[in-house]
TrEMBL record:
Encoding gene (name): HS3ST5
Compartment(s) of residence: Golgi apparatus membrane
Binding site for 3'-phosphoadenylyl sulfate: 99-103, 182, 190, 292, 308-312
One cellular component (GO) term of this entry: Golgi membrane
Protein name: Sulfotransferase
């Protein structure tokens, strides 16, 4: 009898003990998950109503793996619905400049848990055929994201294409516009190098940079050469300013993004009203590549493709001097309009 009572008591204690441990575990888990969903930093947004929302950043980071799967197309409608994923129009666009470091900027911003990049250049606003397909076509080209995240796309041709400012304005007059610039002569040579490489790949010959950049008849800078025209940043910016106030633009120093990316990215975080989340941990210098590469976590890191960071051909120093002299007054105007002085020669 006594033995039976003891066994009953032991069983009861066991049940009570399990219940207590279970409750304790539940509480710990609940507090943990609540903490994860707790907004870390409220965002004071200039993005309208939704931007006033707070970004549960740690939760977003936690779900990034999932997003990655969705981006690869490994997703069903059910999963999209279940995870509240949406395809959102961009709330910021890197509009240029070609060879300014647009890819590096997009990839580096994508390190931020509240940012989702459109991987491909969409060319919606600069390509009439694409534009005619309508805004829903454009939205469907965007990656899946959580509603609190912001989508960013980059198409460097936007900066120099006549029709683009008005078209973007019609989509969203308060959109944020990012322009990454490099010292104009270096950018023009980089532009030339890209075209040259394309020609060489097709076994075609091409002119020397000097021949294209300098008009042989006048010996002056050839302003008809596209690589030169693109580097007259102020001319293009002035067209954009007919539609958007200067406060809606942020100028990124592309030369500094190469040598010292973090402070440039922190300025962009500020401009986008994002809490600072990109850190030195996310960026490491790769001596073989000669550039900073990206570290997402202990497992996943990557450098940009080999087509970024090409070796430029040698250019006659007198041509470089001539080009720098030519760009100088345009640069001064650009500093004056943007309020960002870049100390180019
Ligand atoms: P170069 O190939 O002339 O060196 P874009 O993406 O707009 O085409 O710009 C390409 C430029 O991005 C490259 O020009 C390179 O200098 C610059 N760049 C900036 N940061 C880089 C990085 N971390 N890795 C590779 N290239 C980078």
């Amino acid at each position: 009898m006594l033995f039976k009572q003891q066994a009953w008591l032991r069983q009861k204690l066991l049940v009570l003990g399990s219940l207590a441990i279970g409750s304790l575990l539940y509480l710990v888990a609940r507090v943990g998950s609540l903490d994860r969903l707790q907004p870390i930093c409220p965002i004071e947004g200039r993005f309208g109503a939704r931007s006033q929302a707070e970004f549960p950043l740690r939760a977003l980071q936690f779900k990034r793996g999932l997003l990655h799967e969705f981006r690869k197309g490994n997703t069903s409608k059910e999963q999209v619905r279940l995870h509240d994923l949406v395809q959102q129009l961009p709330r910021a666009i890197i509009i240029g400049v070609r060879k300014g470091g647009t890819r590096a900027l997009l990839e580096m911003l994508n390190l931020h848990p509240a940012v989702v990049k459109a991987s491909q250049e969409i060319h919606f606003f600069d390509n009439d055929e694409n534009y005619a397909k309508g805004i829903e076509w454009y939205r469907k080209k965007m990656p899946f994201s959580y509603p609190q995240q912001i989508t960013i796309e980059k198409s460097p041709a936007y900066f120099i294409t006549e029709e683009v400012p008005e078209r973007i304005y019609k989509m969203n007059s308060s959109i944020k516009l990012l322009i990454i610039v490099r010292e104009p002569t270096t950018r023009a040579i980089s532009d030339y190098t890209q075209v040259l490489e394309g020609k060489e790949r097709k076994n075609k010959t091409y002119y020397k940079f000097e021949k294209l950049a300098i008009d042989p008849n006048t010996c002056e800078v050839n302003t008809k050469y596209k690589a030169v025209r693109t580097s007259i940043y102020t001319k293009h910016l002035e067209r954009w300013l007919k539609y958007f106030p200067i406060e809606q633009f942020h100028i990124v120093d592309g030369d500094r993004l190469i040598t010292e990316p973090l402070p440039e990215l922190q300025l962009v975080e500020k401009f986008l009203n994002l809490p600072p989340r990109i850190s030195q941990y996310n960026l490491y210098f790769n001596a073989t590549r000669g550039f900073y590469c990206l570290r997402f976590n202990i497992i996943f890191n990557k450098c940009l493709a080999g087509s970024k960071g090409r070796i430029h051909p040698e250019v006659d120093p007198s041509v470089i001097t001539k080009l720098r002299k030519f760009f100088h007054p345009f640069n001064q105007k650009f500093y004056q309009i943007t309020g960002r002085t870049l100390n180019w020669p």
